[in-house]
Amino acid sequence: MNLFEHILVPLDGSLHAMKALQTALNLAALIKAQVEVIHVIDTAQVRQIAHLLQKNAEQMQNELKDKALGILCDAECLARQLEMELVTHLAEGIPYEVIVDYADHHGVDLIVIGRIGTRGPRRILIGSVTERILEAAHCHVLVVR
What we know:
- By secondary structure, the protein is α/β, with parallel strands linked by helices.
- The protein is about 50% helix and about 20% strand.
- The chain has five helices and five strands.
- A five-stranded parallel beta sheet has the order 3-2-1-4-5, with helices on both faces.
């Protein structure tokens, strides 16, 4: 039995997230682990962006969902290039809470996440979602630079 059998990679469309996915797929190939990816549409962000762009929340939600589906499609393409299987999920809520909850309820034993996401370097060394996952996750977390 491997230490890691079920790997979860949160994706937000950033370069760091794609590096995390590449790392997770390479690791999974070595240890024969299952890899899943999750993209979480931040519901608080939907309202803020809609307000700033003077759009209604439903329209903004649809645009973010289309973007999310593109991110998940890119992940599937990368996995296919490596001849790996990948399970994708799209969720809504507060990203770190959804990711930790998903990991807890689906037997994830490793979360592989990029150091900084699309929100940029709010902190000097690590992004806020990554930091919160590190604090809240009940499984191992690998942060990819």
